[in-house]
Amino acid sequence: MVRSDAHFYSLFSACPNLFKDLANLETEEDLTFDAVVIKELEVRLDGFFRTSDPESPNYVVEFHGYRKKGNNVYYQLLSKLGLIGNKIPDEPVAGVILFTHKKYDPKTWPWFDFSQLKHAGFRVLYLEDVLKALTERQPDHPLIPTFTPFLASDEQFQSEVYASFQKLKQLSLPEKEKSAIEDVFFSWIMERSGLASKEEVLQMLAELTPMEETPVYQHIKSLGIQEGMEKGVERGFQNGIMLSIQLLTDLLKDGKITNDGYLTSIAPLKEQLKKIQSTKHTPWQTS
Questions:
Q1: Which end of the chain is more exposed for a tag (fewer CB within 10 A), N or C?
Q2: Under 8 Å between Cβ of 91 and 54
């Protein structure tokens, strides 16, 4: 099972307004995220989102990704709502439970039924549903590719994660938000694939990159070396690839490309070299 609570906390503490988009909250105010600890329960809230408008509701949020007997998230939320309400009695407080999958919702009576009312004091949401709705409202929203490694099926994991990675690279966001999104994205890939580091994830993503899309391919082509590589098919394509690897290494040493760019570009070259040398290749599999 992929962990979720800690990643949701990291993501929305850095980008609280993204939760407003995800849950489609009816407020024009910016949200701030508070890491509130309720001493009476000796527990920290998953998320407490506040607004600057005293008439707009603040939100106590429970992120829930499991189902365990004796652990009822509805009563947990209700108890936290009561305690927070006592701390800020002059401000409205609402509750949200965000389930990662519908199967984890115990639909506790009468609170689940109450949550379905139009103006209920708390709402029950399912991640897959809210992301689908968000896609319809804002198809280019950054949360859509961010959650791909968490929700993608095993069969589509590689292709969907690669496509989402390309979208994330094009994001135009403040550095803090972009960094938080990338950290969560890579963390979920590592948990599902069993990879140990961001560098390993980048290398595996690079192996999924079509050769002609890599930065080094474009650079080599601009230098006119690609023509020589194509001619080298008959004379020994291996030499052309080795020349490309050496060029890429030189670019890294000269500081003309980043380390991430180096890893992204060199992996498909090494893969081609392995195939030429008849070295067995083990495809990336998720656990």
A1: N
A2: yes
Q: For the chain, how big is the Rg over CA atoms in Å?
A: 24
Q: Cis omega before residue 174 (within 30°)?
A: no
The whole-number pLDDT of residue 124 equals: 92
C-alpha to C-alpha distances, 52 to 18, 36, 230, nearest whole angstrom:
16, 17, 62
Number of Cα atoms under 13 Å in the Cβ half of residue 100: 19
pLDDT digits (tens, 9 = 90+) for 15-27: 888 888 898 887 7
CA distance 211 to 101: 37
* Six token digits for residue 152: 């993608």
* Residue-range domain boundaries for the chain: 5-193, 207-276
Using an 8 Å Cβ cutoff, are 108 and 132 in contact?
no
Give the global pTM: 0.67
The strand pair at 43-44 and 37-38 is best described as antiparallel
Q: Which of 9, 101, 91, 2 is nearest to 48 (CA)?
A: 9
Mean pLDDT value of segment 49-55? 83
When the pLDDT of each residue in the chain is averaged and rounded to a whole number, the result is 78
